[in-house]
Design a protein that fits this description.
This protein is mostly helical. It has helices spanning 2-19, 39-43, 47-50, 70-82, 90-95, 99-110. The chain starts with a helix and ends with a helix.
Length: 114
């Protein structure tokens, strides 16, 4: 019975040591990802709701992103990110992107045909 207690105590001490370690830095996106062309890779995350290449399905309640002005998309994302614009999930999604990443995705979507 005693070896089990030693094992549990050792695991708890190790867990405590791990918990005190600083969090690893967030991964940095390559500069090419922040270019308008690089925004295409990040914009793939939008396809599930906004359609492939930002073209929502006809009749969808989710708006299309393709062909909309970059400034408009950037402003909308900033409003979602700050909580100023109500949303079901976009306010959480927007918080996951830096302003530079949002600008790159907006530039990408703005260049696409509607």
């Amino acid at each position: 019975m005693r070896p089990i207690l030693v094992l549990i105590a050792s695991a708890l001490v190790s867990a405590g040591a791990i918990a005190q370690q600083p969090a690893p830095p967030a991964p940095a996106f390559a500069a090419s990802n922040l270019s308008p062309k690089g925004g295409q890779g990040m914009a793939g995350n939008c396809a599930a709701c906004h359609g492939t290449a930002g073209r929502a399905a006809p009749g969808s309640a989710v708006p299309a992103l393709a062909g909309r002005p970059a400034a408009e998309l950037t402003q909308l994302m900033a409003q979602f990110k700050s909580g100023q614009r109500p949303a079901t999930v976009m306010h959480q999604i927007a918080k996951g992107y830096s302003d530079a990443e949002i600008a790159a995705m907006a530039a990408y979507f703005s260049r696409l045909a509607r």
